[in-house]
Amino acid sequence: MSTNLTRDALATLICETLAKRLKKPVEDISLQTRFETLQMDSLDLAEMFFLLEDELKITIPLDQGVQLASIQDALELIFRSLQASPVQENA
After folding, report:
1. 59: left (phi > 0), else alpha (psi -120 to 50), else beta?
2. Gap between the Cα atoms of 33 and 49, Å rounded
3. CA dist 89 to 2, 3, 33, 57, Å?
4. Contact assessment for residue 15 and residue 26, using Cβ atoms and an 8 Å cutoff
5. DSSP-assigned letters across all residues of 6-57
């Protein structure tokens, strides 16, 4: 996946990934949703980031990821990771 992914598309991907992982309707998850509201612990967050790393072909700094409070926080961290990641052709 290339680094030209829009913020909106990335937000949708994060919400859909979380909804699938947590077996919740995607409509119940928004950028304002806090991880504690979803009853997610640090292991759940790490697993979410591993799924997104595989999908996006990037590395997300987990030491920062497990300290996030909301999906908006995750979006910002992942978007920065995408920006920093070299473009991978034929990945």
Report:
1. beta
2. 16
3. 8, 11, 34, 11
4. yes
5. -HHHHHHHHHHHHHHHHT--GGG--TT-BTTTTT--HHHHHHHHHHHHHHHT
pLDDT in tens, 28-51: 999 999 999 999 988 888 889 899
**Alpha carbon 55 to chain centroid, angstroms:** 10
Which single residue is written with the structure tokens 């920006």? 83
Q: Half-sphere exposure of residue 77, counting CA atoms within 13 Å on the CB side?
A: 22
Q: Which residue has the tokens 């979006």?
A: 75
